[in-house]
Write a structure and sequence with these properties.
The chain has 626 residues and is of the alpha+beta class. 52% of the residues lie in helices and 17% in strands. The protein has a domain at 326-451: Calcium-transporting ATPase, cytoplasmic domain N, CATH 3.40.1110.10.
């Protein structure tokens, strides 16, 4: 944080501090405001600067609210005034108000990422045939026009035009994505270089961007346990300091017959240095800074308590599909047996699969087109639910083709041991086999797999280095699960798990590890996410369920973001501890000095404001953590 020299209130207070210091220096050289004007000058000065502090302190006194920090400042200022230390009374109030302003600036800076998010929220939209409207007036199904360089105002589907879109505000991804007709776009993202028309799919209050903003600001209410403790502690701490200050004055003066002025000065010094400003500010600034950092990278953390829980996680359970893998089948093996080459096998299979809506069918068609093989023309297509399909190929000498599971093929054609062995081998590798037969016997086998994300292995390795046990929980069969787990170095694997089984397994893991995170898609894994210490939803952009279900929603599909968030959470907790210890140590030293009679008011004030400023600066460094 740079000193806010553009902040008018800060500059005014800084000028006031300098003025008081100059008056104090002049008084030491014998140049003082003459009596009886001095009290009135300083009263006017104090009221102009700190009337809110004094008024709040007076209200706290009337209501016997001894936990008020403003009451501490009121007592300190009145006491200094009573001693005739008018410049010191002014310094107490001015530096306290300056410290409060620094706290406000620190909080504002720590929330800057959130404010930037809000600033990207469009206010109007250009609706075709209606002109420019407030986004609240735009209905679902309206056609919105977006020029290059403009923010996309509402979630929708492109119905005309091609462009690239900067989705950093949603996903944290710095590289714009190509978008074409039929693609989904989000409010708050930037249309970079093409004129597009969008058919809106949500009203403004329901867009992904609106939900992110709403939940981000609601996150401030989800305070961490440390934050709650410090707030509760300060409520008891402040009255205790008032009592301690009273004893520091009463015992020496009325029992030990010591000089009144000296010990009243020490009591006031104790009130000032014991002010818990630095303690109270140490946690929220750090947490806001960390949450702002995470949001800029595409991670929505719903409160300090989840950030704190993440720092304590000892095990992390991960779903396989769409978490470690892409969740989309791709062709991995093309094995011709009774055909001349891969082209004939793939083109023939793709010709029949064109008519199927099964995900595996689409993967085979995509592979054929990608390889440049034109799918064969077929007729008499028929699908057999849960087994496969058959059709007549018009290219392969009008042969009837059968495509599907091995058992389905066995019902229609003889199957060799070689084919059975290949299917078993693919199964052991976590792959799905599609067997194709035409003519005599099995023509070939196509293997499909759910591809592992490029960053999954690195992310798991980083988790292990952080001392966290990765565990796979998946609804896939045991063989497929173990094969994928082995690729990314996950040792503990639990397959064939329904959503309720995952939730029960999380309960067991909590008994073993105490703090367990669960990573899933936020929909099928909702019960397990809710059961875990921290629920993390992957690829939450566009998924209302994921955003609302998870404690942390990753707006992109990067598993590698999770180790970063864990490091950030650990760094945040360490920073809070360091801030707290620093504040306590400084205050303890000056409290001891006050009891020994060696402290003074000016030094105490400087120490209090100094430690508050240091705490703020250290906390704001979390915004730059990488």
């Amino acid at each position: 944080m740079k000193l806010p020299f553009k902040d008018k209130k800060f500059l005014f207070l800084l000028t006031a501090v300098i003025a008081v210091i100059v008056l104090e220096i002049l008084s030491l050289t014998g140049i003082e405001i003459p009596m009886p004007y001095a009290p009135f000058v300083f009263v006017a000065f104090i009221l102009a600067i700190g009337y809110k502090v004094l008024w709040n302190g007076l209200n706290a006194l009337i209501k016997l609210k001894f936990s008020s920090i403003n009451l501490l400042m009121l007592i300190a200022a009145v006491g200094a005034f009573y001693l005739g230390e008018y410049p010191e009374a002014a310094v107490v109030i001015v530096l306290y108000v300056l410290g409060e302003r620094l706290e406000d600036i620190g909080i504002e800076n720590s929330k800057s990422a959130l404010d930037e998010l809000v600033s990207k929220s469009p206010k109007t939209a250009v609706v075709k045939d209606s002109g420019e409207l407030l986004i609240d007036q735009v209905k679902v199904g309206s056609v919105v026009q977006v020029k290059p360089g403009d923010y996309i105002p509402l979630d929708g589907i492109i119905i005309s035009g091609d462009t690239t879109v900067d989705e950093a505000a949603i996903t944290g991804e710095p590289i714009p994505k190509d978008k074409h007709k039929g693609d989904i776009v989000f409010a708050g993202t930037v249309n970079k270089n093409g004129f597009i028309e969008i058919e809106t799919t949500k009203i403004s209050a329901d867009t992904t961007f609106s939900k992110i903003i709403k939940l981000t600001f609601e996150a401030q209410a989800n305070k961490s346990e440390t934050q709650k403790f410090i707030q509760q502690f300060s409520k008891k701490y402040t009255p205790a300091i008032i009592l301690l200050s009273a004893l520091l004055f009463i015992v020496p003066v009325f029992i030990l017959d010591q000089p009144l002025n000296k010990w009243l000065n020490q009591a006031i010094t104790l009130l000032v240095i014991a002010c818990p400003c630095a303690l109270v500010i140490s946690t929220p600034v750090a947490i806001y800074a960390a949450i702002g950092n995470a949001s800029s990278k595409g991670a929505l953390i719903k409160g300090g308590k989840y950030l704190e829980a993440l720092a304590k996680v000892k095990a992390i359970a991960l779903d396989k599909t769409r978490t470690i893998t892409f969740g989309k089948p791709v062709v991995s093996d093309i094995i011709p047996l009774n055909v001349k080459d891969k082209e004939e096998l793939l083109a023939c299979a793709a010709g029949a699969e064109v008519f199927s809506e099964h995900p595996l069918a689409q993967a085979i068609v995509d592979a054929s087109i990608k390889e440049g093989y034109e799918p064969h023309a077929v007729e008499n297509f028929k699908s057999v639910m849960g087994k496969g399909l058959h059709a007549d190929c018009l290219v392969c000498e009008d042969e009837k083709i059968f495509i599907g599971k091995l058992e389905f093929i066995k019902e229609h054609q003889p199957v060799t041991k070689e084919a059975e062995h290949i299917v078993e081998k693919l199964s052991n590798e976590g792959k799905t086999s599609v067997v194709i037969s035409f003519g005599d016997g099995v023509a070939g086998i196509i293997g499909l797999t759910d591809e592992i994300k490029p960053d999954s292995e690195i992310a798991i390795e980083e988790l292990i280095q952080l001392g966290i046990e990765p565990i796979m929980l998946t609804g896939d069969n045991e063989k497929a699960a173990k094969y994928v787990a082995a690729q990314v170095e996950i040792k503990k694997v639990f397959g064939n798990m329904l959503p309720e089984n995952k939730s029960d397994k999380i309960k067991e893991l909590l008994q073993e590890y105490k703090y367990v995170a669960m990573v899933g898609d936020g929909i099928n894994d909702a019960p397990a996410l809710a059961q875990s210490s921290v629920g993390i939803a992957m690829g939450a952009a566009g998924s209302d369920t994921a955003i609302e279900t998870a404690n942390i929603a990753l707006m992109n599909d990067k598993l590698s973001l999770i180790p970063f968030l864990i490091r950030l959470s650990k760094k945040t907790l360490r920073r809070i501890k360091i801030n707290t210890i620093a504040a306590v140590v400084v205050k303890f030293i000056f409290i001891v000095l006050a009891f020994l009679g060696f402290s003074n008011l000016a030094l105490a004030i400087a120490a209090d404001v100094g430690v508050t400023l240091i705490v703020i600066l250290l906390s704001l460094n979390l915004m730059r953590f990488k």
